Amino acid sequence: MKAQEKTRTPHSLRFNVWLYFLLFSAVLVIMVWMFEVAAFRIYYQRMRQTEVRNIAYRLADLSDEISSWEEFRDAAELAAVSYGVAIIIYNAKGDVLASFGPFGGYVPDQATVETFLNKFIESGADEVEYFVDRTDSEFRSYIYGCMLGPADSAFLYINMPITEYNIMGDILSNQLVTVGIISLAFALIMSWFISWKLSDPIHKMAAQAKKLGQGDYGVHFEGNGYDEIDELSNALNFATEELGKTDDLRKDLLANVSHDLRTPLSMIRAYAEMIRDLSGNDPEKRTRHTETIIEEADRLSLLVNDMLDLSKLQAKTVEFHYEVSCISLLAEHCLKQFSYLEERDGYRIE
Hints:
It contains eight helices and five strands; from the N terminus they run ααββαβββααααα. With 350 residues, the chain is of the alpha+beta class. Strands 2-1-5-4-3 form a five-stranded antiparallel β-sheet, sandwiched between helices. α1 (13-65) packs antiparallel against α2 (69-83) and α1 (13-65) runs antiparallel to α4 (165-213).
């Protein structure tokens, strides 16, 4: 048994373009939303860490370069207010030498100070950084410290809260939901417009193609400015012109063939009547008339062969070769074919 052929369900190009564009827009909005919500915490935390390090590096440079305590204090106060951080200077014993904050001085408890100084002892490095999370809330802060001055005479302590990303994350989520709805609505309108722009000329071409199939070779296919559709319309216009030429050639061929066949048929009939009425008892005339009938029958065969050769030339299965012909011999042959008119009706042909 032959396997059943799979039937393909037709799909509308306009609907497919609209659907694909809409799905792409929806996936893009979802990806943006997921990236902003999921990656915002990591990005925000790293950004805040970078800000703290930059503050510490500037203050450390100032502590080495300037001799005036007033300049260092002004720079620390400006950084604390601008970035919302707490900046404290400790000595090696843990005593507070100076404290700066966005809302005034800030002094952490003794446990925080001991933890901070112990980090230096454990690491043996010139700087430390770590996070502090409170168990009773979502509060989290980033601690950064480095040594100031020679022989560990002072330590720079910077405390930056990074919990505001929760509030900002909620704001971004709400904004992204609104933006996503607006984007999908805009994508819905744009996808419909684009799908209509692409499919409308194809629908028009289909309507013109139906007219072409009904024999109307005066149709014209138009594109819409896109290269691919313009190429298709040009190809269809070229095919329409060629079909029109072929139809004209077919009509001319039928007219010429009907005309050319009428002449030898008329001669065969005329010579047959002459044999019946005039030369039936004259062997010489009967033989000449019979040969003429045979020649005209051969001419009919040649006409049929010419039609076949013309079809082969149109199909480009054979090559066309030119030959030299003598027009006077062709004219004498044509006059000889009409010699029966002289015998039967008394015509004189020169």
